[in-house]
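Final report, closing paragraph on structural work. Over the funding period we assembled a curated collection of sequence-structure pairs, and we close with a single example.
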Amino acid sequence: MNEATDPYCLAPGESEALLGGHPWRRFVVLGDSVAEGLCEPVDGYSDLQWADRIAAELRAIRPELAYLNLGVSGLRSREILATQLDPALAFGPDLALVVGGGNDAFPATYDPDRVDRALTLMITALQDAGADVMTLGMFDVSYSPAVADWLRPGLRQRMRTLSTRTAALADKLGTIHINLTDHPLSTDPGLYSSDGRHGNARSDAVATAETVRALGRRL
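Its predicted structure, as stored:
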């Protein structure tokens, strides 16, 4: 199987049909390694990272789209807020992707309320500045074969809490939400990188498809 034949990826012409005539001209990304892009290559799938792929799909319709990715690996939600919100607002976006909480939820010290507060501040500031905001329920990395068995139960519970809380926040604030946690492939060990913390190129291809479909629903 490859990206062209993968039933979970974009079909030929699907992106153009969903995004045709989209209004967005300035796309900014805030977040951690999921935003920055650290996925491992997979034969038959594009090496382009998820956020870059979203920009490419948007630019296929509107070539003049300006794109800024501020994502930095390893940051927790409060660090994303502290270092990326101001430059994101200065960019003047009309579309923003906010990805955060994964690094908060990995250790047992995870504080859901603190993550919610940081995400809320970023989302509302961007919305107040005129941007449509996308949020993410991440693939559940506890299914990665590189995660030690003893870590799985606690990590799975925390990732589920993060996803549930982010979805509730998205519903409350009216974001464009991409729920990958409940995707049929989220439990597939073949979707994850060997580092036990990230997805691979197939996961990014699937995430791109789900993002484009979510944007299409908003349109």
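The radius of gyration is 16 Å. The chain has a mean pLDDT of 96. We thank the funder for supporting this effort.
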